[in-house]
Amino acid sequence: VRWQGPQANGMPELHKLTPPLAVLQGKGFKVALVTDGRMSGASGKVPAAIHVSPEAAAGGPLAKVQDGDVIRIDGITGTLQVLVSEAEWGARPLAQMPAELRVANGVGMGRELFANMRRNALKAEEGACTWL
Fold it and tell me: What is the distance between the alpha carbons of residues 108 and 110, in angstroms, rounded to a whole number?
């Protein structure tokens, strides 16, 4: 789930994704959550890699992930790997946040007030702080 980081839309809470993923997991599917967003609650039995940084909106690796890619999450070594060849990975362009999503992220519920903060937000591992 990309485009959920501080520069994209201010890092909204994503804990509501856990129940549907748990249902899929209970039906025998192998699922995990990989996102540049945040979750303040537990992910339960669903493996999760959150705050992937740099975020997709800042040119991070999630901007290269494509539908159908197999992603390996290794909790022991702390690694996250898209299982494609290095040549293919290197040749992939960085996806750009869709313009309509960027516009939608800036409208409603006071989001207009925080456009400058999103524009100047640091990476998640730097605390997503902004110094105006």
Answer: 5
Q: What is the residue whose two structure tokens read 């339960």?
A: 44
Determine how many CB atoms are found less than 10 A away from the CB of residue 130.
Answer: 15
Amino acid identity of residue 62, one-letter, is L
The pLDDT tens digits for 51-110 are: 888 999 989 999 999 999 999 998 899 899 999 999 999 999 999 999 988 888 777 666
Structure tokens that stand for 73 in this block: 């999450």
Number of H helices, E strands in the chain: 4, 4
**Which of helix, strand or coil describes residue 48?**
strand
Answer for the pair 94, 24: CB distance below 8 angstroms, yes or no.
no
pLDDT tens digits along 109-119: 666 767 777 77
Residue-range domains of the chain with CATH: 15-126 (3.50.30.80)
3-state secondary structure of 18: helix
Q: Are 31 and 25 in contact (CB under 8 A)?
A: yes
C-alpha span between 15 and 12 (Å, rounded)? 9
